[in-house]
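Exercise 3.2. Students should predict the tertiary structure of the chain below and write it as structure tokens, then compare their answer with the key that follows.

Predict this chain's 3D structure.
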Amino acid sequence: MKDKIQNLRNKVSKYFENFDELNNRRTKWNTETKEFIHSKLTEINDCFPKLVWFVGKNEHIKNLESVYWEMGNEMAGFAIKNKFIIRKPGYLNYAQLANGKIIVMIAYPTIEENIRNEIEPKIIGDYLPDEINEKLIIKHAEAFIDEINDWTMNLDK
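Answer key:
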């Protein structure tokens, strides 16, 4: 019987290796990566005091947390009979997935009253916690600003 289930033993062994790797990713996110991203996004945000944006964390679900750089709510420039229309913020989001990887995405602003169709979030990529560094965060911040600028100037899309 031992010889007949060797393939199964190998698969079970791989399962435990995968589980250990998942736990390592989650530990790295919780002990280093989450705070590193928050710190770097805060540094970036602080470089632009005219932006009334903020950096935050969503930590409601353990091992599915996120760190984000969010635009503030702003007037959209439209009004319906003295009711000002609000543009809800877009954001750059770093979120831990169930597999311990970090997905990076851009969520676009939305305008109340369906003045403009919503755009699906854009996924930039997914990364292992060890792959997140300052250069990558700056690259993502630049991509976020590019997307928001494009969104702002192409409201007819």
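Discussion points: Helices lie at 6-46, 134-153. The chain has a mean pLDDT of 87.
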